[in-house]
Input
Amino acid sequence: QVQLQESGPGLVKPSETLSLTCTVSGGSISSYYWSWIRQPAGKGLEWIGRIYTSGSTIYNPSLKSRVTMSVDTSKNQFSLKLSSVTAADTAVYYCARGSHDSSGYYRVDYWGQGTLVTVSS
Amino acid sequence: DIQMTQSPSSLSASVGDRVTITCRASQGISNYLAWFQQKPGKAPKSLIYAASSLQSGVPSKFSGSGSGTDFTLTISGLQPEDFATYYCQQSNSYPYTFGQGTKLEIK
Output
């Protein structure tokens, strides 16, 4: 059974960099798309971006100038860095796995449990 | 960005009911549409992708339809565990975008 687990500091100071890691267990990290999604308290879901195991990335333009994603296949992990954070970046951050089915349709099948990151001094 | 609009924003129904949630895209997205279920304090769960394909392990009481700009999620025979918030998401073009969610509550 594939499991994803987010980890990282739960509290980040304004203007600093938020850093999260998602560890994949029960399956290989190879040949999948790995996404980050966030959700402020009481609000909807926002797609941050995704990285393929080759290292190819696509970021949400609304965050692109501040986002960096990376993947470490040797550790079965991928990471998110979000710089110059403000209170507006306070949210639960989820990692998720995506792939294309035999017909080429994209699907997300596994999610991490989420981790709350609070931006506050 | 493609805007996704769900209706209604909230919905009250009884156990055993059949309900339908609508998702409309601001431009055509073919059938690159997924549905997710989220319960309070939990991660979203993937239900449907490609507008009508059920994710593995998802019961057939959930069904999706639509293409282009208009999509629906139908849940038959509501059970207590189905009361949750449902989100649609388009994967036709980046950035992938979600609807604002539909909260399904027990009447």
Summary: The interface with chain B takes residues 37, 44-47, 49, 58-62, 94, 101, 103, 105-109, 111-114 of chain A (CB under 8 Å). Chain A has a mean pLDDT of 96. Chain A is about 0% helix and 55% strand. The longest strand of chain A covers residues 91-100.
